[in-house]
Amino acid sequence: xxxxxxxxxxxxVQSAAAPGxxxxxxxxxxxxxxxxxxxxxxxDKKGQxxxxxxxxxxxxxxxxLGTYCGYSTMRIARLLPPGARLVTLEMNQHYAQVAKQILGxxxxxxxxxxxxxxxxxxxxxxxxxxxxxxxxxxxxxxxIYTTLHCLQLPLQLFSRPPQxxxxxxxxxxxxxxAERQPAKRSSACKVDLLVGASSALIPQLKKxxxxxxxxxxxxxxxxASYLPDARLLEECGLLAPGTVLLADNVTCPGAPDYxxxxxxxxxxxSEYFPCQLEYLQVEDGxxxxxxxx
Length: 293
Ligand code: SAM
Ligand code: MG
Fold this sequence. Notes:
Bound molecules: S-adenosylmethionine, magnesium ion
Order of helices and strands: HHHEHEHEHHEHHEHEHHEE
Number of helices: 12
Distance between the termini: 49 Å
Helix content: 40-55%
Strand content: 15-25%
């Protein structure tokens, strides 16, 4: 059933994308979210900046904060060489379960832990927001995203003609392609999807994966957590000289305290990439910060 937006995105991917083909799944999510329902994926325009950074860094260990439906996870994973590891953290159990299925459809080998209870119900991000210490921030963020979602309709009316989500931008995501292509694995890279709050999971990563430091970290969870989690990553010794932090949405919804920190700390060399918010003509930007040690 399609009772949540992530579930509706999953259903669209399953019906429109060729099984085992991450590019096709990415394209299907973009088509759906550009034309039917806005969603907080990094999207194709900023996704191309993400792709370029992944290709330039050639990371062996990647960390992602904020999985949602697994859109950016697919973008990163499909560009990683065999043997590379991608760890992605998501606090919302329902989103994590949807992401696991979308990644599975895309042919990406994904381990979800802890495994969900069999009867977990779907929830939207506003639910339970006030229970966490950052509840106020999460509520504010949900409000910003809701406002953006409401902006979608007038913006689409003025900026583009109505489109069938399956065409014309998504040649791979046609039913014909889905039938023709045999299921294949997109990548030998392994994805670990951990369910929990980043502040609780980050200190466990070294031991859990018997690893030293990450080469690339994509930061895209709630914006008030960018700075405390960057500091936590430093404290836990998970950054090495040369580790690249790429932070999404530093302009919209914005992460001013994080920007102020990475731009002024002598421990980072930081660079801004102006771009537009996913699926809308709203100004946004990504910040790429290299840890210097
Ligand atoms: N990176 C995804 C993409 O581009 O496809 C979008 C991620 S969405 C903007 C942010 C996600 O972070 C939400 O699913 C939310 O539940 C999750 N989240 C927020 N704060 C978190 C935290 N402290 N720890 C783990 N997940 C968090
Ligand atoms: Mg984002």
